[in-house]
Amino acid sequence: MKVDVLLGLQWGDEGKGKVVDVLTPNYDVVARFQGGPNAGHTLEFEGEKYVVRSIPSGIFQGDKINIIGNGVVLDPSLFKAEAMGLEKSGHELKNKIVISKKAHLILPTHRLLDAAYEAAKGDAKVGTTGKGIGPTYADKTSRTGLRVGDILDHFEEKYAQVKARHIQLLNDLHFKFDLTALEAEWLSAIEYLKEFQLVDSEHLVNELLNDNKSVLCEGAQGTMLDVDFGSYPFVTSSNTICAGACVGLGIAPNRIGEVFGIMKAYCTRVGSGPFPTELFDEVGATLRDLGHEYGAVTGRERRCGWIDLVALRYSIMLNGVTQLIMMKSDVLDTFETIKACVAYTVNGVETEKFPFNVEHGVDPVYVELDGWKTDMTKMQSEDEFPEEFNNYVSFLEKELQVPITIISVGPDRAQTIVRCQD
Ligand code: GDP
Ligand code: IMO
Ligand code: MG
After folding, report:
1. Which of 41, 104, 110, 166 is catalytic?
2. Which residue puts its alpha carbon closest to atom 27 of ligand 2?
3. What angle do CA 299, 241, 113 make, to 5 degrees?
């Protein structure tokens, strides 16, 4: 059986969680392959709203297997809080979640180091989520990290060593901290983690595939935040692209089937870094208001702008996207006209290719289209779509050369329209 991958094509928060939840009934397994609690995936159904960070978004649709893969970084404290919150609201988890022993642990000192490095950068800060993501992946590649499987064997000694090294680093940075409460909470969460199935998930996922089970891989963040291809250094610390699913789960590349690329009908970004189509005017503020563009994890204001087809073409190329899914179409319902960036002018020269440096001298070239000025939030089928909306979709498909197969017209699971492909 093949593996399908679902991931964000912009700077995160495209609506991945909602779509994973919608598509989960078609799969046996949902698996997270990278990132950690920097993610905030929002799902709404039956009048309830949930935000998951480390737990896969397949958890709400029956008894599917939900894997937290080796490419994920896991903070036991945040995982415990998230899991207990879900259990309290009646969602049984213990039999549904499987955690890779090779996933790296986020220590309390990783969180402190994240804050210390950001403070040291001053105005050049990345604007991280403060969850210790960068320092944890740095320890992973430096071969000095701790993994989930380590909690089962001589953990105290291993932990003491890493903690001592981190404290030295924090002191070198003259960073003031108090570890006592954070550490007590974390150590108790380590015990809680032991109640879950901790396995070699690369074996499990391949056995499931050989058994004809279908797997949906859930990406976190977005392609433009990928550590190799995003707007470096204003990126996250993992490979958010499709290839990350192979590395982060132990799946061979020839197993990959459909690649669902999720995009908003416009564009947002949270944290620092370049964003060529960002709007600093009334239009940007309107997008933020209508789209409720505030971070699911940090509550930070998201920066808003028009859709960027240069960045999207780049993302589609890197991921081998086979289907596009457009979210938040309803947010544009009241606009007279809508703009789409089809090229950049870089130091006076027009290009359709995403350049090495997008920080300076990049100006978007826009095409303007008519808005549809119709409330789409209650629409149930594509037959109801206004003509101007169909024009917008056809325009995007022509520019991006990939079919848009699903349109989302509101945050609820039910506000999702699958388009017929002929
Ligand atoms: P993720 O990180 O990619 O899962 O996305 P987030 O959950 O961080 O952000 C997406 C936000 O948009 C959430 O608040 C969703 O409830 C909301 N959302 C998703 N799809 C739609 C949609 O089609 N219309 C509107 N108005 N909101 C949506
Ligand atoms: P989801 O999965 C949007 C951004 C941060 C910061 C940069 C690095 O919900 O789409 P990090 O804490 O990862 O070191 O921060 O990446 N960022 C996200 N932005 N959505 C996310 O996740 C993000 N995860 C990280 O704002 O700019
Ligand atoms: Mg999010």
Report:
1. 41
2. 271
3. 50
